[in-house]
Structures are given as C-alpha cells and as structure tokens.
Predict the 3D structure of the following.
Amino acid sequence: MKSKIGIVLSGGGARGVAHLGILKALEEFGIVPTHISGTSAGAITGAFYAAGYSIPEIVSILKKGQIFNFSNILIKRQGLFAMKGFHDIYKEYFPTDSFEDLNIPLYVAATDILKGESVYFSSGNLSQSLMASSCIPMLFQPVHYKNTLFVDGGVLNNFPTEPLKGQCDIIIGSYVNSIKKEVDQVHMNNIMDRCFHLAMKGSVQSKIDSCSLYIEPPNMSQFSIFNLKRADEIFDYGYQYARTFEKQIKELDLEL
C-alpha cells in the first residue's frame, strides 16, 4: 500500500511561487502529495495544485492574475484594500468554488481575529477560505465569513502541520520565508516583512520535527513578498534547491 503523503506549504506572498518549483522537483522524484495544508500563499498555490492544474499552468495563472501584486487588482477603501478582486479570479479558475471538487484534500489555515485562534478550512466555500487565509493585516480589510472576521493564517500559524498529523504517513514541509539572522541594513519597506518572519521563526522551528522531509530554500528574503516580476527566478530557485534532496527523498519509506 502506498504511503499517504502530506505537504505543508507556508505563506510568503510572491515567494510562494517557490513552492511550485519544489513541487516540480518532488514530482520528478516520483512524489505527488495525497493531502495538502497551506497558509496564505501556500494555500493559494496548494488550491490550484489540488484542483489539477499543472505546475506551468499555475505559474502562468499567478503571473497573469497578479495575485501577489495586490495594488493592481484591489480597490482601496478606508485606508485598507478590499479583497473583491481576488474573488473574481478564483471564480474563474474554480467554477464550483468548492473544496469538495478538488482532486486532493486541502486544508487552509486562517486566523479568527475575534476569537484569537487558528481555523482550518477543508470544506465549503473555497474562495472565501483562500481570501481569509491571505488577508494580510494592516493592508486588507478583514474577511467576514462564517459570522466572524478573518486575517492571514500566518499571524498564528504560517506552517500548518496540524491538519496532516494522524492522516499522513509522511509529511513534507516547504517553507519559503528563510531570512538572514543578521543583516547590515534594512530598508523601510522590508521592516514589516522582517519583523513578521523573525517573530514566527520560533514557532516554525518547533514543527520541523514532525516533518519526514523539510525543505527551506536559504535567503528567500532576497525576493519581495509583494513583487511577481521575479516569479520565474523564484520558481527556479525553489526547484534547484529541492533537487538537492534526492538522497533524502530516496530514503523515505513510500511503500507501507
């Protein structure tokens, strides 16, 4: 019997394209996940993959839709962006807008800002769940869904291994927010990003042990989370790094 293989995809804005490079490398090594769990950009890329789109198709969709280039598609109201632009894109590519019609079970992490807890969506309205998961605080208006308000899943859980525990024999982690511990300088537009990822690094560290394989391309902070202009470079960076894990992948027990 084949092992059930879950993959965890972190948030990371435009850096999420690196997940697709990592997925391509895994496919070349004969690994296709049976379950996917993701936050924010990881949830978005995971949803397209779970729906059966090929990796080149997903890269093209992300670039064409400018999904991580927020200011191009959003209407600003009351100092914050509204997320309606995303809904129209998702409806185009997910016609039934439902988790139940995906080819691979998907878990989407979001933060219930009123209750102060992580929530994992795996059924029902797909586009609302994706918008909730990727609603960056201070940039977007919180998403009103299921009688509460949601913001980005990464606020509390940027590496959602929890939904896969007990369901999968093998868990593979893909984390695309590596940062240099020390830098010589930091620009104003990078301060929020650096603070956010320094703060969450500790919580991610504690979850690495639950992964059979953990892939974290180094120095991802060289890529902006808000700029898709380097999407092809980000994809190739993730792909080339994942290719170096051939030995570890071959050691995984894929047959039970």
Observations:
- The first helix runs from residue 17 to 28.
